[in-house]
From TrEMBL, chain A:
The keyword GTP-binding does not apply. InterPro entries: FAD/NAD-bd_sf, FAD/NAD-binding_dom, Ferredox_Rdtase, Ferredox_Rdtase_adrenod. This is NADPH:adrenodoxin oxidoreductase, mitochondrial. NADP(+) binds at Q162, G163, N164, V165, R206, R207, E218, G383. One of its GO terms (molecular function) is oxidoreductase activity. Keywords: Electron transport, FAD, Flavoprotein, Mitochondrion, NADP, Oxidoreductase, Transit peptide, Transport. GO terms for biological process: cholesterol metabolic process.
TrEMBL record, chain B:
GO terms for cellular component: mitochondrial matrix. Residues 37-141 form the 2Fe-2S ferredoxin-type domain. It comes from the Eukaryota. It is found in: Mitochondrion matrix. PROSITE patterns: 2FE2S_FER_2, ADX. InterPro entries: 2Fe-2S_ferredoxin-like_sf, 2Fe-2S_ferredoxin-type, Adrenodoxin-like, Adrenodoxin_Fe-S_BS, Beta-grasp_dom_sf. This is 2Fe-2S ferredoxin-type domain-containing protein. It comes from Gouania willdenowi.
Amino acid sequence: MLHLVSGQALFSSCSPKVCVVGSGPGGFYTAQHLIKARPDVELDIYERLPVPFGLVRFGVAPDHPEVKNVINTFTQTAKHSRCNFYGNVNVGRDVTINELKEAYHAVVLSYGAEGNRTMGVPGEDLAGVYAAKDFVGWYNGLPNCRELNPDLSCETAVILGQGNVALDVARILLAPISMLKSTDITQPALEALAQSQVRRVLIVGRRGPLQIACTIKEIREMVNLPGTKPEMLPADFEGISEVLKDVPRPRKRLTELMLKTALETPGEKELERRKSASRSWGFRFFRSPVEVLAEPRTNKTSAIRLAVNRLEGSGADAQAVLTGEVEDVTCGLVISSIGYRSLLIDPGLPFDSRKAIIPNSMGRIQHTPGVYCSGWVKTGPTGVIATTMNNSFDTARSMMEDMDSGALDVSAVKSGSQSITALLRGRGVKPVTFADWEKIDSVETKKGEAEGKPREKLLSVEEMLQVAQT
Amino acid sequence: MSAFLFVPSLCRAALPLTLCCCVVVFCTSHHRSDNKVTVNFINRDGDRITVKGSPGESLLDVVINEDLDFDGFGACEGTLACSTCHLIFDEEMYKKLGPVTDEEMDMLDLAYGLTDTSRLGCQICLSKSLEGMVARVPESVADIRQTKDAEVVSFYKH
Protein backbone atom coordinates (compact mmCIF):
# COMPACT_ATOMS: atom_id res chain seq x y z
CA MET A 1 0.00 0.00 0.00
CA LEU A 2 1.37 3.44 -0.91
CA HIS A 3 1.01 6.35 1.47
CA LEU A 4 1.57 9.90 0.44
CA VAL A 5 2.62 11.92 3.43
CA SER A 6 3.53 15.54 2.86
CA GLY A 7 4.73 14.85 -0.65
CA GLN A 8 6.80 11.83 0.27
CA ALA A 9 5.85 8.36 -0.84
CA LEU A 10 6.08 5.78 1.88
CA PHE A 11 5.60 2.12 1.23
CA SER A 12 3.99 0.51 4.18
CA SER A 13 3.60 -3.18 4.48
CA CYS A 14 0.05 -3.98 5.55
CA SER A 15 0.93 -7.47 6.46
CA PRO A 16 0.83 -8.25 10.16
CA LYS A 17 4.19 -9.59 11.27
CA VAL A 18 4.23 -12.18 14.03
CA CYS A 19 7.12 -14.02 15.60
CA VAL A 20 6.99 -17.30 17.46
CA VAL A 21 9.63 -18.29 20.02
CA GLY A 22 10.12 -22.05 20.05
CA SER A 23 9.71 -24.53 17.22
CA GLY A 24 8.07 -27.47 18.96
CA PRO A 25 4.40 -28.38 18.51
CA GLY A 26 3.32 -25.26 20.48
CA GLY A 27 5.11 -22.94 18.08
CA PHE A 28 4.37 -24.77 14.87
CA TYR A 29 0.67 -25.33 15.46
CA THR A 30 0.20 -21.68 16.37
CA ALA A 31 2.08 -20.65 13.22
CA GLN A 32 0.09 -23.07 11.10
CA HIS A 33 -3.23 -21.77 12.32
CA LEU A 34 -2.30 -18.13 11.85
CA ILE A 35 -0.95 -18.59 8.34
CA LYS A 36 -4.02 -20.50 7.30
CA ALA A 37 -6.52 -18.15 8.90
CA ARG A 38 -5.11 -14.86 7.63
CA PRO A 39 -3.72 -14.64 4.10
CA ASP A 40 -1.63 -11.61 5.02
CA VAL A 41 0.18 -12.75 8.19
CA GLU A 42 3.95 -13.14 7.88
CA LEU A 43 5.47 -15.38 10.45
CA ASP A 44 9.00 -15.93 11.78
CA ILE A 45 9.82 -18.85 14.07
CA TYR A 46 12.88 -18.48 16.32
CA GLU A 47 14.45 -21.58 17.83
CA ARG A 48 17.42 -21.83 20.18
CA LEU A 49 18.84 -25.03 18.72
CA PRO A 50 19.97 -25.39 15.11
CA VAL A 51 17.29 -28.06 14.70
CA PRO A 52 13.50 -27.64 14.90
CA PHE A 53 10.59 -29.62 16.35
CA GLY A 54 11.31 -29.54 20.08
CA LEU A 55 9.97 -32.51 22.02
CA VAL A 56 8.78 -34.25 18.88
CA ARG A 57 12.47 -34.78 18.20
CA PHE A 58 13.78 -34.90 21.77
CA GLY A 59 10.88 -36.23 23.84
CA VAL A 60 8.88 -38.79 21.87
CA ALA A 61 10.33 -42.25 22.45
CA PRO A 62 12.46 -43.71 19.62
CA ASP A 63 10.12 -46.70 19.32
CA HIS A 64 7.11 -44.43 18.73
CA PRO A 65 8.01 -43.13 15.26
CA GLU A 66 4.34 -42.71 14.21
CA VAL A 67 3.90 -40.02 16.82
CA LYS A 68 6.59 -38.05 14.97
CA ASN A 69 4.54 -37.92 11.77
CA VAL A 70 3.47 -34.41 12.76
CA ILE A 71 6.91 -33.31 11.55
CA ASN A 72 5.52 -33.59 8.03
CA THR A 73 2.84 -30.99 8.63
CA PHE A 74 5.32 -28.75 10.49
CA THR A 75 7.69 -28.99 7.53
CA GLN A 76 4.95 -27.83 5.20
CA THR A 77 4.31 -24.85 7.47
CA ALA A 78 8.00 -23.96 7.67
CA LYS A 79 8.30 -24.05 3.89
CA HIS A 80 5.24 -21.86 3.35
CA SER A 81 6.07 -18.64 1.56
CA ARG A 82 4.88 -16.58 4.51
CA CYS A 83 6.86 -18.49 7.12
CA ASN A 84 10.55 -18.34 7.99
CA PHE A 85 12.53 -20.47 10.42
CA TYR A 86 15.53 -19.03 12.27
CA GLY A 87 17.39 -21.65 14.29
CA ASN A 88 20.43 -21.11 16.52
CA VAL A 89 18.85 -17.98 18.01
CA ASN A 90 18.63 -17.80 21.79
CA VAL A 91 15.75 -15.48 22.73
CA GLY A 92 16.68 -13.92 26.04
CA ARG A 93 20.40 -13.96 25.29
CA ASP A 94 20.95 -13.16 21.57
CA VAL A 95 17.86 -10.98 21.31
CA THR A 96 15.42 -9.76 23.95
CA ILE A 97 11.65 -10.00 24.07
CA ASN A 98 11.49 -6.20 23.97
CA GLU A 99 13.51 -6.15 20.76
CA LEU A 100 11.08 -8.69 19.28
CA LYS A 101 8.11 -6.58 20.42
CA GLU A 102 9.64 -3.60 18.62
CA ALA A 103 10.08 -5.50 15.38
CA TYR A 104 6.80 -7.46 15.29
CA HIS A 105 3.11 -6.73 15.77
CA ALA A 106 2.82 -9.76 18.00
CA VAL A 107 5.11 -12.22 19.74
CA VAL A 108 4.12 -15.76 20.70
CA LEU A 109 6.13 -17.55 23.38
CA SER A 110 6.09 -21.31 22.89
CA TYR A 111 9.36 -22.29 24.45
CA GLY A 112 8.01 -25.14 26.48
CA ALA A 113 9.38 -26.58 29.69
CA GLU A 114 13.09 -27.28 29.80
CA GLY A 115 13.43 -27.55 33.56
CA ASN A 116 12.54 -30.23 36.07
CA ARG A 117 10.42 -30.61 39.12
CA THR A 118 12.82 -31.85 41.75
CA MET A 119 11.94 -34.44 44.37
CA GLY A 120 13.48 -32.18 47.00
CA VAL A 121 14.88 -35.06 49.04
CA PRO A 122 18.35 -35.71 50.46
CA GLY A 123 20.54 -37.76 48.16
CA GLU A 124 18.96 -36.36 45.03
CA ASP A 125 22.41 -35.33 43.84
CA LEU A 126 24.03 -38.74 44.32
CA ALA A 127 25.56 -40.59 41.38
CA GLY A 128 22.86 -42.78 39.88
CA VAL A 129 20.00 -40.32 40.30
CA TYR A 130 18.68 -38.68 37.14
CA ALA A 131 15.73 -36.62 36.05
CA ALA A 132 13.61 -38.45 33.48
CA LYS A 133 13.81 -35.39 31.25
CA ASP A 134 17.60 -35.73 31.13
CA PHE A 135 17.49 -39.50 30.67
CA VAL A 136 15.05 -39.10 27.79
CA GLY A 137 17.18 -36.25 26.41
CA TRP A 138 20.19 -38.56 26.57
CA TYR A 139 18.69 -41.38 24.52
CA ASN A 140 17.06 -38.91 22.16
CA GLY A 141 20.20 -36.91 21.39
CA LEU A 142 19.48 -33.61 23.12
CA PRO A 143 22.88 -31.85 22.92
CA ASN A 144 22.81 -30.79 26.59
CA CYS A 145 22.38 -34.38 27.73
CA ARG A 146 25.03 -36.16 25.74
CA GLU A 147 27.45 -36.33 28.66
CA LEU A 148 24.89 -37.91 31.00
CA ASN A 149 26.57 -41.34 30.94
CA PRO A 150 23.97 -42.98 33.16
CA ASP A 151 25.31 -45.85 35.21
CA LEU A 152 23.42 -48.93 34.07
CA SER A 153 25.52 -51.43 36.01
CA CYS A 154 22.97 -52.16 38.71
CA GLU A 155 20.19 -54.73 38.74
CA THR A 156 17.25 -52.63 39.89
CA ALA A 157 16.09 -49.23 38.70
CA VAL A 158 13.39 -47.25 40.51
CA ILE A 159 11.38 -44.67 38.59
CA LEU A 160 9.39 -42.12 40.60
CA GLY A 161 6.24 -41.08 38.77
CA GLN A 162 3.79 -43.13 36.70
CA GLY A 163 3.01 -40.91 33.72
CA ASN A 164 3.79 -41.78 30.13
CA VAL A 165 7.32 -40.43 30.42
CA ALA A 166 7.99 -42.89 33.27
CA LEU A 167 6.59 -45.72 31.15
CA ASP A 168 8.76 -44.67 28.19
CA VAL A 169 11.87 -44.75 30.39
CA ALA A 170 10.96 -48.19 31.78
CA ARG A 171 10.35 -49.53 28.30
CA ILE A 172 13.60 -48.19 26.88
CA LEU A 173 15.50 -49.64 29.87
CA LEU A 174 14.04 -53.11 29.36
CA ALA A 175 13.37 -53.40 25.63
CA PRO A 176 15.36 -55.98 23.68
CA ILE A 177 18.25 -54.36 21.82
CA SER A 178 16.96 -55.95 18.63
CA MET A 179 13.91 -53.72 18.95
CA LEU A 180 15.85 -50.55 19.68
CA LYS A 181 18.58 -50.82 17.10
CA SER A 182 16.30 -50.02 14.18
CA THR A 183 14.99 -46.83 15.79
CA ASP A 184 16.47 -43.34 15.90
CA ILE A 185 17.81 -43.85 19.42
CA THR A 186 21.34 -42.43 19.57
CA GLN A 187 24.26 -44.76 19.00
CA PRO A 188 25.91 -44.05 22.39
CA ALA A 189 22.63 -44.80 24.18
CA LEU A 190 22.16 -47.98 22.18
CA GLU A 191 25.66 -49.14 23.10
CA ALA A 192 25.16 -48.29 26.76
CA LEU A 193 21.82 -50.13 26.85
CA ALA A 194 23.39 -53.14 25.13
CA GLN A 195 25.81 -53.35 28.09
CA SER A 196 23.16 -52.54 30.66
CA GLN A 197 22.81 -54.86 33.64
CA VAL A 198 19.47 -53.43 34.66
CA ARG A 199 17.05 -56.34 34.90
CA ARG A 200 14.26 -54.98 37.05
CA VAL A 201 12.38 -51.69 36.90
CA LEU A 202 9.89 -50.50 39.52
CA ILE A 203 7.59 -47.64 38.58
CA VAL A 204 6.51 -45.93 41.77
CA GLY A 205 3.52 -43.66 42.44
CA ARG A 206 2.33 -41.75 45.49
CA ARG A 207 -1.27 -42.85 45.12
CA GLY A 208 -3.11 -45.96 43.99
CA PRO A 209 -3.95 -47.81 40.76
CA LEU A 210 -7.03 -45.67 40.12
CA GLN A 211 -4.92 -42.53 40.08
CA ILE A 212 -2.21 -43.73 37.72
CA ALA A 213 -1.39 -41.03 35.18
CA CYS A 214 -0.14 -43.07 32.26
CA THR A 215 -2.42 -44.32 29.48
CA ILE A 216 -3.44 -47.79 28.41
CA LYS A 217 -1.35 -48.00 25.24
CA GLU A 218 1.85 -47.57 27.24
CA ILE A 219 0.79 -50.15 29.86
CA ARG A 220 -0.07 -52.62 27.12
CA GLU A 221 3.37 -52.11 25.59
CA MET A 222 4.96 -53.07 28.91
CA VAL A 223 2.71 -56.10 29.36
CA ASN A 224 3.69 -57.28 25.88
CA LEU A 225 7.36 -56.31 26.02
CA PRO A 226 9.37 -59.32 24.80
CA GLY A 227 11.74 -60.86 27.32
CA THR A 228 10.01 -59.30 30.32
CA LYS A 229 7.50 -60.36 32.95
CA PRO A 230 5.28 -58.27 35.22
CA GLU A 231 5.87 -58.19 38.96
CA MET A 232 2.96 -56.54 40.76
CA LEU A 233 1.74 -56.70 44.35
CA PRO A 234 -1.81 -58.09 44.49
CA ALA A 235 -2.39 -56.30 47.79
CA ASP A 236 -2.09 -52.96 45.95
CA PHE A 237 -5.25 -53.86 44.05
CA GLU A 238 -7.53 -54.73 46.95
CA GLY A 239 -10.97 -53.26 46.55
CA ILE A 240 -10.29 -51.93 43.06
CA SER A 241 -12.47 -54.20 40.95
CA GLU A 242 -15.46 -53.46 43.18
CA VAL A 243 -15.51 -49.77 42.26
CA LEU A 244 -14.91 -50.26 38.56
CA LYS A 245 -18.48 -50.63 37.39
CA ASP A 246 -19.23 -46.92 37.81
CA VAL A 247 -16.03 -45.70 36.26
CA PRO A 248 -15.94 -44.28 32.70
CA ARG A 249 -14.72 -46.65 30.01
CA PRO A 250 -11.19 -45.31 29.49
CA ARG A 251 -10.24 -45.53 33.17
CA LYS A 252 -12.08 -48.85 33.45
CA ARG A 253 -10.23 -50.53 30.57
CA LEU A 254 -6.88 -49.29 31.83
CA THR A 255 -7.56 -50.53 35.36
CA GLU A 256 -8.87 -53.87 34.09
CA LEU A 257 -5.65 -54.37 32.15
CA MET A 258 -3.64 -53.73 35.33
CA LEU A 259 -5.89 -56.03 37.37
CA LYS A 260 -5.55 -58.78 34.81
CA THR A 261 -1.77 -58.40 34.77
CA ALA A 262 -1.54 -58.34 38.55
CA LEU A 263 -4.12 -60.88 39.63
CA GLU A 264 -5.07 -63.28 36.90
CA THR A 265 -3.43 -66.67 36.64
CA PRO A 266 -1.84 -66.61 33.21
CA GLY A 267 -2.58 -69.25 30.58
CA GLU A 268 0.01 -71.83 29.59
CA LYS A 269 1.56 -69.82 26.78
CA GLU A 270 1.95 -66.74 28.96
CA LEU A 271 3.36 -68.84 31.81
CA GLU A 272 6.01 -70.20 29.46
CA ARG A 273 6.81 -66.74 28.22
CA ARG A 274 7.20 -65.43 31.77
CA LYS A 275 9.39 -68.34 32.78
CA SER A 276 11.88 -67.56 30.05
CA ALA A 277 11.81 -63.79 30.68
CA SER A 278 15.06 -62.45 32.06
CA ARG A 279 13.76 -58.98 32.92
CA SER A 280 10.90 -57.77 35.07
CA TRP A 281 8.92 -54.61 35.71
CA GLY A 282 6.14 -53.62 38.08
CA PHE A 283 4.12 -50.75 39.48
CA ARG A 284 4.48 -49.89 43.15
CA PHE A 285 1.76 -47.76 44.67
CA PHE A 286 1.27 -45.62 47.78
CA ARG A 287 4.96 -44.70 47.99
CA SER A 288 6.70 -41.28 48.05
CA PRO A 289 10.48 -40.70 47.95
CA VAL A 290 11.98 -39.60 51.25
CA GLU A 291 15.72 -40.06 50.74
CA VAL A 292 18.19 -41.60 48.31
CA LEU A 293 20.74 -43.65 50.25
CA ALA A 294 24.37 -44.11 49.31
CA GLU A 295 26.75 -47.00 49.69
CA PRO A 296 28.86 -46.29 52.78
CA ARG A 297 31.81 -43.98 52.06
CA THR A 298 30.81 -43.52 48.42
CA ASN A 299 28.72 -41.25 46.28
CA LYS A 300 26.85 -44.13 44.68
CA THR A 301 23.17 -44.83 45.07
CA SER A 302 22.46 -48.05 46.93
CA ALA A 303 18.79 -47.73 47.84
CA ILE A 304 15.83 -45.39 47.97
CA ARG A 305 13.81 -44.78 51.13
CA LEU A 306 10.10 -44.55 50.41
CA ALA A 307 7.35 -43.30 52.71
CA VAL A 308 4.22 -45.43 52.80
CA ASN A 309 0.99 -43.56 52.03
CA ARG A 310 -2.67 -44.18 52.38
CA LEU A 311 -5.39 -42.57 50.33
CA GLU A 312 -7.91 -40.06 51.58
CA GLY A 313 -10.81 -39.53 49.25
CA SER A 314 -11.29 -41.34 45.98
CA GLY A 315 -11.03 -40.94 42.27
CA ALA A 316 -8.96 -38.20 40.71
CA ASP A 317 -9.17 -36.08 43.87
CA ALA A 318 -7.73 -38.71 46.19
CA GLN A 319 -4.87 -37.43 48.32
CA ALA A 320 -1.82 -39.35 49.48
CA VAL A 321 -1.39 -39.08 53.24
CA LEU A 322 1.73 -40.24 55.10
CA THR A 323 1.25 -43.17 57.45
CA GLY A 324 4.61 -42.75 59.15
CA GLU A 325 5.97 -46.04 57.83
CA VAL A 326 8.96 -46.15 55.54
CA GLU A 327 10.44 -48.81 53.31
CA ASP A 328 13.88 -49.10 51.71
CA VAL A 329 14.22 -50.46 48.18
CA THR A 330 17.64 -51.60 47.01
CA CYS A 331 18.54 -50.05 43.68
CA GLY A 332 21.42 -48.43 41.84
CA LEU A 333 19.48 -46.23 39.46
CA VAL A 334 16.82 -43.70 40.45
CA ILE A 335 14.95 -41.76 37.80
CA SER A 336 12.56 -39.06 38.90
CA SER A 337 9.75 -38.59 36.40
CA ILE A 338 7.55 -36.20 38.32
CA GLY A 339 7.17 -33.46 35.76
CA TYR A 340 8.94 -30.99 33.52
CA ARG A 341 8.97 -27.31 34.47
CA SER A 342 8.97 -24.10 32.44
CA LEU A 343 11.60 -21.46 33.09
CA LEU A 344 11.44 -17.69 32.84
CA ILE A 345 13.54 -16.50 29.89
CA ASP A 346 13.06 -12.77 30.34
CA PRO A 347 12.64 -10.98 33.69
CA GLY A 348 10.26 -8.53 32.02
CA LEU A 349 7.62 -11.22 31.72
CA PRO A 350 5.14 -12.22 34.42
CA PHE A 351 5.63 -15.76 35.74
CA ASP A 352 3.64 -17.96 38.09
CA SER A 353 6.40 -19.85 39.85
CA ARG A 354 4.01 -22.12 41.69
CA LYS A 355 2.45 -23.50 38.51
CA ALA A 356 5.62 -22.66 36.49
CA ILE A 357 3.64 -21.10 33.66
CA ILE A 358 3.32 -17.65 32.18
CA PRO A 359 0.05 -16.24 33.55
CA ASN A 360 -2.33 -15.80 30.68
CA SER A 361 -5.94 -15.70 29.63
CA MET A 362 -6.59 -17.86 26.58
CA GLY A 363 -3.01 -17.33 25.47
CA ARG A 364 -2.93 -13.57 26.06
CA ILE A 365 -0.10 -12.95 28.54
CA GLN A 366 -1.26 -10.93 31.53
CA HIS A 367 -0.27 -7.27 31.59
CA THR A 368 1.69 -7.70 28.36
CA PRO A 369 -0.29 -6.61 25.31
CA GLY A 370 1.00 -7.96 22.03
CA VAL A 371 2.62 -10.97 23.66
CA TYR A 372 0.95 -14.37 23.65
CA CYS A 373 1.89 -17.90 24.66
CA SER A 374 1.08 -21.43 23.60
CA GLY A 375 2.08 -24.98 24.43
CA TRP A 376 3.40 -26.08 27.80
CA VAL A 377 4.62 -22.65 28.87
CA LYS A 378 0.94 -21.63 28.68
CA THR A 379 -0.80 -24.56 30.33
CA GLY A 380 1.86 -26.51 32.21
CA PRO A 381 3.86 -29.55 31.11
CA THR A 382 1.21 -32.21 30.59
CA GLY A 383 -0.60 -33.49 27.56
CA VAL A 384 0.30 -35.02 24.24
CA ILE A 385 0.86 -33.39 20.90
CA ALA A 386 -2.85 -33.19 20.14
CA THR A 387 -3.45 -31.39 23.43
CA THR A 388 -0.80 -28.83 22.54
CA MET A 389 -2.28 -28.52 19.07
CA ASN A 390 -5.59 -27.47 20.52
CA ASN A 391 -4.04 -25.09 22.98
CA SER A 392 -2.03 -23.50 20.16
CA PHE A 393 -5.09 -23.10 17.97
CA ASP A 394 -6.78 -21.33 20.88
CA THR A 395 -3.91 -18.87 21.20
CA ALA A 396 -3.99 -18.23 17.46
CA ARG A 397 -7.73 -17.57 17.69
CA SER A 398 -7.20 -15.11 20.55
CA MET A 399 -4.63 -13.25 18.47
CA MET A 400 -6.92 -13.14 15.47
CA GLU A 401 -9.76 -11.82 17.60
CA ASP A 402 -7.44 -9.10 18.82
CA MET A 403 -6.40 -8.23 15.28
CA ASP A 404 -10.02 -8.01 14.19
CA SER A 405 -11.14 -5.96 17.17
CA GLY A 406 -8.19 -3.60 17.02
CA ALA A 407 -6.98 -4.66 20.47
CA LEU A 408 -3.86 -5.65 18.59
CA ASP A 409 -2.81 -2.78 16.35
CA VAL A 410 -1.42 -4.12 13.10
CA SER A 411 -1.49 -0.84 11.19
CA ALA A 412 1.95 0.36 12.22
CA VAL A 413 4.88 -0.50 10.01
CA LYS A 414 7.05 -3.16 11.57
CA SER A 415 10.44 -4.28 10.38
CA GLY A 416 10.12 -7.92 11.34
CA SER A 417 13.00 -10.23 10.57
CA GLN A 418 14.85 -7.56 8.60
CA SER A 419 15.81 -5.68 11.73
CA ILE A 420 16.17 -8.77 13.90
CA THR A 421 18.53 -10.55 11.52
CA ALA A 422 20.57 -7.35 11.19
CA LEU A 423 20.73 -7.11 14.96
CA LEU A 424 21.82 -10.75 15.22
CA ARG A 425 24.47 -10.27 12.56
CA GLY A 426 25.86 -7.39 14.55
CA ARG A 427 26.06 -9.68 17.57
CA GLY A 428 27.84 -12.43 15.68
CA VAL A 429 24.83 -14.76 15.66
CA LYS A 430 24.25 -16.67 12.44
CA PRO A 431 20.71 -18.08 12.23
CA VAL A 432 20.12 -21.51 10.73
CA THR A 433 17.45 -21.40 8.01
CA PHE A 434 15.04 -24.21 7.26
CA ALA A 435 17.07 -25.08 4.18
CA ASP A 436 20.12 -25.34 6.46
CA TRP A 437 18.17 -27.70 8.75
CA GLU A 438 17.37 -29.80 5.69
CA LYS A 439 21.11 -30.27 5.18
CA ILE A 440 21.36 -31.57 8.76
CA ASP A 441 18.28 -33.73 8.14
CA SER A 442 19.88 -35.18 5.03
CA VAL A 443 23.16 -35.99 6.78
CA GLU A 444 21.33 -37.66 9.69
CA THR A 445 19.11 -39.67 7.37
CA LYS A 446 22.06 -40.87 5.28
CA LYS A 447 24.04 -41.85 8.36
CA GLY A 448 20.99 -43.71 9.64
CA GLU A 449 20.50 -45.58 6.37
CA ALA A 450 23.95 -47.09 6.74
CA GLU A 451 22.86 -48.56 10.09
CA GLY A 452 19.30 -49.54 9.30
CA LYS A 453 17.92 -46.64 11.35
CA PRO A 454 15.60 -43.84 10.23
CA ARG A 455 18.34 -41.38 11.20
CA GLU A 456 21.51 -41.09 13.21
CA LYS A 457 21.18 -37.80 15.07
CA LEU A 458 24.03 -35.32 15.24
CA LEU A 459 24.75 -34.97 18.94
CA SER A 460 26.32 -31.55 19.37
CA VAL A 461 25.42 -28.03 18.38
CA GLU A 462 28.90 -27.65 16.87
CA GLU A 463 28.39 -30.58 14.52
CA MET A 464 24.92 -29.32 13.58
CA LEU A 465 26.25 -25.85 12.77
CA GLN A 466 29.12 -27.26 10.81
CA VAL A 467 26.76 -29.16 8.53
CA ALA A 468 24.21 -26.36 8.38
CA GLN A 469 26.52 -23.51 7.64
CA THR A 470 29.22 -24.84 5.35
CA MET B 1 -5.32 -27.95 6.98
CA SER B 2 -6.74 -27.44 3.50
CA ALA B 3 -4.14 -24.86 2.53
CA PHE B 4 -1.50 -27.56 2.39
CA LEU B 5 -1.06 -30.35 -0.07
CA PHE B 6 -1.23 -33.80 1.42
CA VAL B 7 -0.15 -36.79 -0.56
CA PRO B 8 -2.96 -39.28 -0.19
CA SER B 9 -1.49 -42.41 1.25
CA LEU B 10 -2.40 -45.99 1.88
CA CYS B 11 -3.97 -45.93 5.27
CA ARG B 12 -2.22 -48.18 7.66
CA ALA B 13 -2.12 -48.81 11.36
CA ALA B 14 1.27 -48.93 13.01
CA LEU B 15 2.35 -52.51 13.49
CA PRO B 16 2.71 -52.77 17.24
CA LEU B 17 5.95 -54.15 18.59
CA THR B 18 3.95 -56.53 20.75
CA LEU B 19 3.10 -60.17 20.93
CA CYS B 20 -0.62 -59.62 21.14
CA CYS B 21 -2.67 -60.61 18.15
CA CYS B 22 -4.25 -57.46 16.81
CA VAL B 23 -6.15 -57.11 13.63
CA VAL B 24 -4.13 -54.63 11.64
CA VAL B 25 -6.28 -52.57 9.35
CA PHE B 26 -5.03 -52.13 5.82
CA CYS B 27 -7.17 -50.08 3.53
CA THR B 28 -6.45 -50.17 -0.16
CA SER B 29 -7.96 -47.81 -2.66
CA HIS B 30 -9.80 -48.82 -5.77
CA HIS B 31 -10.12 -45.78 -7.98
CA ARG B 32 -13.16 -46.58 -10.10
CA SER B 33 -15.49 -43.62 -10.47
CA ASP B 34 -18.62 -45.81 -10.87
CA ASN B 35 -17.98 -47.38 -7.51
CA LYS B 36 -18.09 -44.36 -5.21
CA VAL B 37 -19.58 -44.24 -1.72
CA THR B 38 -21.35 -41.12 -0.49
CA VAL B 39 -20.21 -39.87 2.89
CA ASN B 40 -21.79 -37.03 4.84
CA PHE B 41 -19.68 -35.20 7.39
CA ILE B 42 -21.24 -32.86 9.94
CA ASN B 43 -18.54 -30.35 10.82
CA ARG B 44 -18.07 -28.52 14.10
CA ASP B 45 -20.32 -25.67 12.94
CA GLY B 46 -23.13 -28.15 12.29
CA ASP B 47 -22.83 -27.87 8.51
CA ARG B 48 -23.33 -30.99 6.41
CA ILE B 49 -20.61 -31.66 3.86
CA THR B 50 -21.32 -34.38 1.32
CA VAL B 51 -18.47 -36.02 -0.54
CA LYS B 52 -17.71 -39.26 -2.30
CA GLY B 53 -14.98 -41.76 -1.51
CA SER B 54 -13.85 -45.01 -3.05
CA PRO B 55 -14.44 -48.39 -1.43
CA GLY B 56 -11.38 -49.33 0.61
CA GLU B 57 -10.42 -45.76 1.42
CA SER B 58 -10.49 -44.82 5.08
CA LEU B 59 -12.55 -41.90 6.29
CA LEU B 60 -9.28 -40.10 7.01
CA ASP B 61 -8.24 -40.64 3.38
CA VAL B 62 -11.55 -39.11 2.29
CA VAL B 63 -11.09 -36.06 4.51
CA ILE B 64 -7.62 -35.53 3.09
CA ASN B 65 -8.45 -36.25 -0.53
CA GLU B 66 -11.50 -34.01 -0.48
CA ASP B 67 -9.57 -31.22 1.27
CA LEU B 68 -12.10 -31.04 4.09
CA ASP B 69 -11.11 -28.36 6.49
CA PHE B 70 -11.35 -29.96 9.93
CA ASP B 71 -8.81 -28.29 12.19
CA GLY B 72 -6.17 -30.71 13.43
CA PHE B 73 -7.78 -33.81 11.96
CA GLY B 74 -5.51 -36.81 11.52
CA ALA B 75 -2.39 -35.48 13.20
CA CYS B 76 -0.56 -38.82 13.23
CA GLU B 77 -1.52 -39.56 9.61
CA GLY B 78 -3.52 -42.69 10.29
CA THR B 79 -1.05 -44.64 12.41
CA LEU B 80 -3.11 -45.05 15.60
CA ALA B 81 -0.87 -42.70 17.55
CA CYS B 82 -3.47 -40.03 18.37
CA SER B 83 -7.23 -39.55 18.59
CA THR B 84 -7.69 -36.51 16.39
CA CYS B 85 -9.68 -38.30 13.67
CA HIS B 86 -12.44 -39.03 16.20
CA LEU B 87 -15.87 -39.29 14.54
CA ILE B 88 -19.31 -39.99 16.00
CA PHE B 89 -21.97 -42.10 14.27
CA ASP B 90 -25.61 -42.89 14.92
CA GLU B 91 -26.40 -46.20 16.59
CA GLU B 92 -27.39 -48.01 13.39
CA MET B 93 -24.36 -46.98 11.35
CA TYR B 94 -22.04 -47.71 14.27
CA LYS B 95 -23.21 -51.32 14.30
CA LYS B 96 -22.42 -51.64 10.59
CA LEU B 97 -18.86 -50.51 11.12
CA GLY B 98 -17.74 -53.76 12.62
CA PRO B 99 -15.48 -54.73 15.50
CA VAL B 100 -13.00 -52.38 17.12
CA THR B 101 -9.48 -53.65 17.82
CA ASP B 102 -7.88 -53.12 21.23
CA GLU B 103 -5.33 -50.93 19.52
CA GLU B 104 -7.99 -48.56 18.17
CA MET B 105 -9.92 -48.64 21.44
CA ASP B 106 -6.78 -47.69 23.38
CA MET B 107 -6.40 -44.49 21.34
CA LEU B 108 -10.14 -43.84 21.09
CA ASP B 109 -10.31 -43.92 24.88
CA LEU B 110 -8.28 -40.74 24.90
CA ALA B 111 -10.61 -38.79 22.65
CA TYR B 112 -12.38 -35.74 23.98
CA GLY B 113 -16.16 -36.15 24.07
CA LEU B 114 -15.97 -39.94 23.70
CA THR B 115 -19.36 -41.62 23.14
CA ASP B 116 -20.56 -45.19 22.79
CA THR B 117 -20.78 -44.71 19.02
CA SER B 118 -17.37 -43.12 18.52
CA ARG B 119 -14.72 -44.46 16.17
CA LEU B 120 -11.40 -43.30 14.73
CA GLY B 121 -11.82 -42.26 11.11
CA CYS B 122 -8.48 -43.71 10.04
CA GLN B 123 -9.76 -47.19 10.92
CA ILE B 124 -13.08 -47.09 9.06
CA CYS B 125 -12.82 -48.38 5.50
CA LEU B 126 -15.52 -47.48 3.02
CA SER B 127 -17.67 -50.08 1.36
CA LYS B 128 -20.91 -49.88 -0.61
CA SER B 129 -22.84 -51.05 2.44
CA LEU B 130 -21.92 -47.78 4.15
CA GLU B 131 -23.44 -45.69 1.34
CA GLY B 132 -24.87 -42.43 2.65
CA MET B 133 -23.20 -42.69 6.06
CA VAL B 134 -23.24 -39.67 8.34
CA ALA B 135 -20.18 -38.95 10.46
CA ARG B 136 -20.10 -36.11 12.96
CA VAL B 137 -16.82 -34.34 13.75
CA PRO B 138 -17.00 -33.69 17.48
CA GLU B 139 -15.93 -30.51 19.27
CA SER B 140 -12.29 -30.06 20.17
CA VAL B 141 -9.74 -32.71 19.37
CA ALA B 142 -7.95 -32.50 22.70
CA ASP B 143 -6.61 -35.82 23.89
CA ILE B 144 -7.57 -36.82 27.43
CA ARG B 145 -3.90 -36.96 28.49
CA GLN B 146 -3.86 -33.41 29.74
CA THR B 147 -4.21 -31.46 32.96
CA LYS B 148 -5.52 -32.64 36.27
CA ASP B 149 -8.64 -30.53 35.76
CA ALA B 150 -9.51 -32.39 32.63
CA GLU B 151 -8.83 -35.63 34.46
CA VAL B 152 -11.37 -34.69 37.14
CA VAL B 153 -13.95 -33.79 34.51
CA SER B 154 -13.37 -36.84 32.37
CA PHE B 155 -13.14 -39.23 35.31
CA TYR B 156 -16.66 -38.49 36.39
CA LYS B 157 -18.47 -37.88 33.18
CA HIS B 158 -19.27 -40.13 30.28
